Amino acid sequence: MAEPTTTPRHILLVCIGNRVRSPMAQGFLRAELDSAGLGHVQVDSAGTNVWPGNEAPEREAIFEAARAGIRIGHLRSRELTASDFDTHDLVLAMDWDSHALAEAIAPAGQRHKIRHLAHYARRDKITTIPDPAATGYDRTLACIQDACEGWVVNHLVRRPTR
Q1: What is the number of helices (H) and of strands (E) in the chain?
Q2: Which of 21, 25, 53, 121 has a CA 20 to 30 Å removed from the CA of 135?
Q3: pLDDT on residue 5
Q4: pTM for the whole thing?
């Protein structure tokens, strides 16, 4: 699948509950974009199975992100909807389950927008952003940071042509 030829203006990060991985990724991608001078790119997050919704990220996620200088306590969980695919140019899933569920929600003509955030990791060869319940918050956070940095470097920083 070909990468977009233009810089996405609206990026959506998706996990299952929108209380740990996708809000942490939202905070880190926002920081990377700002650092690269790309503050105009909008970043949001959502979950495929959010209940009840409008909740802050888990305390551990807020704490670990804050230790890295990223504030996410103001974010609130929300459910992924079909209309998100109309308003976002790119949807980055955290794992295979959230990818499959996002595909089920997406209108048929919008499924091409879904990719895996882990695909952009540069230091670790990972296929998913791991759930902290399985690997710990520090490992999840390291994978998110690596993938967000990689996405910005590979897709937004302009390189001279050879």
Answers
A1: 6, 4
A2: 53
A3: 55
A4: 0.93
